[in-house]
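EI: anyone free to look at a 532-residue chain?
SC: sure, send it
EI:
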Amino acid sequence: MLARAAVAGAGVLAPRPGLAQTPRRGGTLALRLWDPPHWDPYLTLAFRTQVPYTLTHSRLLKHKAGPAIQPGSFPLEGDLAESWSQADDTTYIFKLRRGVRFHPKPPVNGRELTAEDVVYSVERFRSVTGNPQAYMLAAVDRVNALDRHTVKFTVKEPFAWFLDMIANPMTLAIVARECVEKFGDLKKPEATVGSGPWMLESYRPNVGYTLVRHPHYFLPGLPYIDRIEVTIDDDNASRMAAFLAGKYDLGWENAGAIARTDWNAMKEQLKRHRPGLRTAELPSNVVYRVFMRTDKPPFSDVRVRRAISLAINRQEIIDGVADGAGRLNGAVPVALREWALPVDQLGEGARYYRYDPAEARRLLAEAGYPRGFASVMDFNNYGSTFMDDAIALILKDLKAVGIDTRLNQKEYGAYIATSATGNYEAMYYGATPFLDPDNYLFTNYFPGHPRNVAKVNDSVLTDLLVRQRRTQDVAARRRLLHEIQRHLAAQQYITEIYSPVVVFVWDGAVKNYGPNLGYDYGGRLLAAWLDR
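SC: here you go
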């Protein structure tokens, strides 16, 4: 048996001496977020639901946050878990904090959170009909409450990414059985009762929602911010004007960023009107990609897939929609720098990332399509106008080599429920925001996986995907991940377009705050405070 030492959760993200002044309690933080399709995080892929849950609910583990954390890195710390240990390759023990209480709201009314709540949440996550993310805990064989504050997980086989899955803000918000039993599911806002730092006070569909401080939060003194006012605004010009006027404390795009084109358009005005703004720039983990049904012609032919990649002028897209600030990626975005291979290190497959329409036409002719073919591209712009600009350029490039592609625009909810879960006719353009390479690779390419929306079935690749999951040694796992990325570059099952270098922006009055990638707004704001 392989013994593993216990790893203590860090707990409070306290400011370091010299980094900031004494924290102030109180105040209202203003955010622009999105209208959730509903409020049950176990029944949707939508980040519009997952983001508010990071404010209202707790997980066993989470990613460390704050100005001392290097953006793009995701070190783990305890959330509900006071400590955790790995007894062997398949057994994990979590010791829960004592005295954790749910929000003082019906139907839970502030009772203590126990190991049974963790077991219930895991079993609901794994078994509830309609959970598109159940795969994230598919490795779990069983979960048991050893006592009131101890939970044991047993996985089916060694899974090197297990703790990363547990900490992922899209995975395992711990919910209360009473809420599900009263409402049937968690779709109603009234069912949003967790143990997180803020409580949902009110929800105004298509307008906004309000969160207030959890008075009995388990970390003493936290959160510092008393109130969070969320505005829902899907008009980009309106959002820009509101931010310029000081209405929002963080950038209005994903994770508190501002699209590069918008930032460049307004930064001179911001210098005059909001001189105290803070900024940080880093490559995003959000990757824009063209997905294809590789299980049927014409996309089952590698020559067609390579032709599509060669047909797309990625630099023109980066220049046009990101003001030149973007990165080319292989199957793992460069933002995950510990694991990603730069395009120029992708071996034979690196050639397919260049813009070469003549070679694209030659490959199409070789594949039996000398005059090209007609197709369809599903699309939703996620409420961001630069997505519209990007898809226009992609369709132009495809048409230039003979692929006449009809745009099939879908409403966000329908797009998430169909295209993004693999129910589409031919192609779709979308964004992928994972925080670890296993989700970019195993999730997207393992045969039969529900998120293998390109319908890939490649025996060489499958073997590599399984081996990297079973490899605990980090250096050996990295070598396997690099081999996978080179293989995928040659096969072009998914056409990687680019990821932006994003500008994170926050008001200077928001102290002890550090931006990072991903949807964990609650983690990044937990120990922040307002100096105004």
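EI: Confidence is low (pLDDT under 50) at residues 1-20.
SC: 👍
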